[in-house]
Amino acid sequence: MNLVKPDAVERVAILGAGTIGASWAAYFLAHGLAVNIWDPAPGYEARCRAFIAAAWPALSRLGAPEAPDESRMAFFDDMAEAVRSSQFVQENGPEDKQLKIELYSRLDDAMADGVVMASSSSGLLISELQAGRKAAARYVIGHPFNPPHLIPLVEVVGGEQTDAAAIDWALAFYNGCGKKAIRINREVPGHLANRLQAAMWREAMHLVDTDVASVEDIDIAVSYGPGLRWALMGPNLIFHLAGGDGGIRHSVEHFGPALESWWADLGSAPTISSRTAEKLIAGVEDEAAGRSLEDLTGERDQLLISLLEMLARERGKS
Ligand SMILES: NC(=O)c1ccc[n+]([C@@H]2O[C@H](COP(=O)([O-])OP(=O)(O)OC[C@H]3O[C@@H](n4cnc5c(N)ncnc54)[C@H](O)[C@@H]3O)[C@@H](O)[C@H]2O)c1
Question: Domain tally for the chain?
Fold first, then answer.
């Protein structure tokens, strides 16, 4: 497979410029790439430009130039035209399998040979989206976390027809432009990080449902406790440190039996009852204490940017 070199990419196509697509566009621009943006919704250009302008101060704080380079931003009415001159495609259309299948049937002809296409899809299997496509070997999932212009993680996974070289390529490309990309060895619903989040949220709901603690105290337990450590090291490495001199081996032996008994007691309901949902919603409204979604998003992003700056600075020291 003769792919464009990941570090030779100069222009990327952004297909679908909603929450995720506009954020990707801002990120790639901040990293010096030119972006060809297409979205079928009327008025998308103004919304996307407004998003990029609003995101820019944060990107600038994290190292981007003071203002986005307008000459590197192009908006298209025709998807194929946006794709034709691009050396990478990031697809961010709605999370709808049929819609993505239809989009890919048109995308196939527009993509130049050697170009990789990554879908941001949160939960669809690339095997189901790539079936029947002539460029199937170059289709991968490149799943970001919201907002992609701030959260470094990208999960890369291929489907049944994806060539291993396209997966390696996507990992190299994302990492080369400052993301933290990981390889998922085989397709599973929800990819990887969302499954980890789901496991924790399932238990959080169970704890709300069974009145073990308030919604707010459950959030405090995470963000003032283990959540602080998780931003620095993952749960496996953290348990390596919990084992004293014996490290992870000791942790597994020492905590294993207790963990197994807690696992046996965890809530396992695969459905969310309306009673649980209402309890959770009321608890979150209490916790928000009048702060609007906009207030909370601003608060989250300010803290996140400070944390990213600190981590980059401290990690850069070693
Ligand atoms: N929102 C998140 O937290 C999140 C996180 C990671 C990944 N994703 C994934 O990113 C993708 C986009 O999600 P979003 O939250 O940005 O949705 P969104 O609804 O904000 O944006 C979707 C955009 O796609 C456009 N669109 C409509 N029809 C289209 C078509 N046929 N082809 C291309 N674009 C089309 C819409 O006009 C809209 O601007 C989904 O696959 C989703 O699973 C979302």
Answer: 2
Q: Is the CB of 107 under 6 A from ligand 1?
A: no
Consecutive 10-residue averages of pLDDT for the chain (318 residues): 94 98 98 98 98 95 94 97 98 98 95 96 95 96 96 98 98 97 96 95 95 97 97 95 94 93 91 93 97 94 94 84
Do residues 283 and 208 touch, judged by C-beta distance below 8 A? yes
96: CATH: 3.40.50.720
Token pair in block for residue 129: 């989206």
| DSSP result, 59-99 | HHHTT--SS--GGGEEEES-HHHHHHT-SEEEE---S-HHH
Q: Which two tokens stand for residue 3?
A: 């792919």
| Crossing angle (nearest 10°) for helices 274-288 and 215-223 | 70
The C-alpha atoms of residue 108 and residue 106 are separated, in whole angstroms, by 6
For ligand 1, whether the C-beta of 190 sits within 6 Å is: no
The range of the structural domain enclosing residue 63 comes to 6-183
Residue 15 Cβ inside 6 Å of ligand 1? The answer reads: yes
